[in-house]
């Protein structure tokens, strides 16, 4: 899908796109107002906000089933403030698609289902333990377990209807209880559609169409050409050279918009 390519574009990194090992990088958030404030206030240091990205280097396929991916990757997913689903839309016969064909909406749906299946597995195991605990606890201790059971049963029913936890309206107490589990569908989700250079003229219309289907509470879609963005970030600071690439579609700004979206996702996560 081009996850590592986009990771390199965002972080100005040079991670091996063939490696399945996790990569960690940091991107600074572009904020033009920061320079204005610095010129007015003359601080000793100007430190822009940053977003940390982790490229897990593995597919979420099988995440919710018996072929679940390794513990290290699960820990990284659980600890993340937000998730990015990179979906392939570019054509390259030298890189076979894992499913054998290109289908953006199918791949988005598959990833969403895998995240939901993972959360359902956690809920199912916890409900079994609660059921056992309720049989042996004192009446005074049952209230908390019963409330947790009620919440998890509700989450389970919604997930089975393909409604992610991030879209649910929960009370403050319910949100605190749920936070202990680090559910994947509770995290803000940014869907990144990785297009080819020839698709750049249609990028805005494709993004708008997909957002009409997938833009929800704490989730949305953004399109970018990962290969071109990576090439641009790895150029020397030759303004003329960069300008030549910008003529292909003025896509250099997309990584800036992406990093801003990443920051907004973190804020959405921390405000819950």
Question: What does this molecule look like?
Answer:
The chain has one domain. The chain is built from ten helices and five strands. The strands form two sheets. Strands 3-4-5 form a three-stranded parallel β-sheet, sandwiched between helices. 26% of the residues are buried. It comes from marine sediment metagenome.
Brief sketch in words of this structure:
The chain is mostly helical.
> How many domains?
1
Form type: globular
Largest sheet: 3 strands, parallel
N-to-C terminal Cα separation, in Å? 30 Å
Helical fraction: 40-55%
Helix and strand content put the structural class at mainly alpha
Unreliable residue runs: 246-253
GO molecular function: ATP hydrolysis activity
Protein name: G domain-containing protein
Organism: marine sediment metagenome
